[in-house]
Specification:
By secondary structure, the protein is α/β, with parallel strands linked by helices. It is about 35% helix and about 20% strand. It has 17 helices and 19 strands. The strands form 4 sheets. Strands 1, 5, 6, 7, 8, 9, 10 and 11 form an 8-stranded mixed β-sheet that branches. Strand 5 and strand 6 form a beta hairpin. The chain is globular. About 40% of the residues are buried.
């Protein structure tokens, strides 16, 4: 399959044939309730704090957090569909759906200059402007038609929990005994958490799941289609109706395929599968187990693991000592079973951790929980917003404290091309974390909801 580069290489729902609903579906987006988001610049360098404040998106500052929407994910019937090579296609046209669509966009744009990118975006706008035709609804096929799932890889927990498991959540709603083929690029380094989570949350599906790295062309297949990219590919009037109440200058009225808009959509949405995954996982928990969990936790990385790759941090021991004095327990997700991990997150009222895949678990947090991520200027530039969808699903309070990059006090912010660097938990960062805990750790409603945003510029 060649790399897509023209508008004609992409599948446009309602304009191209080969993809159909199997029952009338809800609208492609419905209003949701957002997480309560804060961003806190906490470098020991005043000049760097100023730069980080400039980079903060004013749209994501409590108490004026913006509206978010749930984008519909549903099982659809595809004809002549191919899974493999990090993409899904129908009739040789690449289907843009959820995170797989994001990966396609990245691979396409990496090969384009600015003029080519602008031409491609204009082509998308022209296709969207064509008369709208609803996707067809067909009778469900016989149960010998399999399901297929796209998975980025077999070792990254964030992508697995946030992207692959929600597809299984949607499939679990369909009464069927058909096989489920999970496609990933290579089977090497498949981690044990993949089958463990499937078995723990979807035991009724586990025996039907087969993980493969063989590209496969299906005459007919049932796949999970997410409507986030659909929002800028289709002129569906239901989209305009869903956002009609917003101010005229709101970005929701100018949804296109350009980079900024696609990033905006990623931060402003979550999908049906993520919500279902939360509901299904919490339904597996025993209430007494949740009640027995510590209310305040620090999520660390297990140093006893053979594949332990802790980024070098400084000042962490001092911060942990202060957290212990405030009733925090240290936990290692790697030492817990899948349902124990879900229970640990759902049972906590305050969760603190360095930037990392552990924040995928925000899917399972209580709406009343306060979750504090400690990042750096490096993660602010390249990773902030990746966990917003997870936070929106649970509606927890999600705060990010941007500390310093370890060893970069004088050299500025290292390029992400050189890899993620560790965190320096300096005096400003430690003070910001502890102050946030002391302010929002109170049981009073006023402490949770009435304090002014901590993200205001100094």
């Amino acid at each position: 399959m060649s790399r897509p580069s023209r508008v004609e290489d992409f599948f446009f729902p309602g304009q191209d044939s080969g993809l159909a609903y199997m029952a009338p579906c809800p609208p492609p987006i419905v209003a949701g309730r957002p997480s309560r988001v804060r961003q806190i610049a906490a470098s020991d360098l005043t000049s760097l704090n100023r730069k980080m404040h400039v980079r903060m998106e004013a749209r994501w500052r409590w108490p004026k957090n913006p509206p978010v929407y749930e984008t519909l994910s549903c099982v659809m019937l595809a004809e002549d569909a191919t899974f493999g090579q990090r993409r899904v296609s129908v009739g040789n046209r690449v289907v843009l759906s959820a995170a797989a669509g994001d990966r396609v966009w990245k691979s396409v744009l990496n090969k384009m200059d600015s003029a080519q990118e602008a031409a491609l975006n204009e082509g998308f706008a022209q296709r969207k402007a064509k008369p709208f035709h609803p996707l067809p609804v067909v009778d469900p096929p016989n149960d010998d038609v399999p399901f297929a799932v796209d998975m980025r890889n077999g070792y990254n927990f964030y992508h697995f929990l946030t992207e692959a498991m929600p597809q299984l959540a949607v499939i679990s709603e369909v009464e069927s005994g058909a096989p489920i083929y999970v496609h990933l690029p290579v089977l090497d380094h498949l981690k044990g958490f993949v089958p463990a989570f499937v078995q723990a949350i979807y035991p009724q599906l586990a025996h039907r799941v087969e993980i493969t790295d063989t590209p496969t062309r299906y005459p007919k297949v049932r796949l999970v289609y997410n409507h986030r990219h659909y929002l800028y590919q289709s002129g569906d009037p239901q989209v305009a109706q869903a956002v009609a109440h917003l101010p005229e200058d709101d970005p929701w009225h100018r949804v296109g395929s350009d980079r900024l808009t696609r990033k905006f959509l990623l931060k402003s949405t979550y999908d049906t599968g993520q919500r279902l995954l939360r509901e299904h996982a919490l339904a597996r928990l025993v209430p007494a187990t949740v009640d027995a969990q510590p209310e305040r936790i620090w999520i660390g990385r297990d140093p006893s693991r053979e594949d332990f790759k802790q980024r070098p941090n400084s000042g962490e021991s001092e911060l942990l000592e202060a957290l212990a004095g405030r009733g925090f327990d240290v936990i290692y997700m790697e030492k817990l079973s899948p349902l124990e991990q879900v229970a640990a997150i759902n049972g906590a009222e305050m969760i603190v951790a360095p930037h990392g895949a552990a924040f995928s678990h925000m899917l399972f947090a209580r709406p009343t929980a306060t979750v504090i991520e400690i990042g750096t200027p490096q993660t602010q530039l390249h990773r902030w917003g990746d966990f917003l969808g997870n936070a929106h699903v649970s509606r927890c309070r999600y705060s990010t404290v941007f500390a310093d990059v370890e060893g970069a006090e004088e050299m500025g912010v290292p390029s992400i091309m050189d890899g993620h660097r560790g965190i320096h938990f300096g005096a400003a960062a430690q003070s910001a974390v502890l102050d946030h805990i002391d302010r929002f750790g109170s049981d009073s409603q006023a402490a949770h909801e009435s304090i002014e945003s901590l993200a205001e510029a100094p």
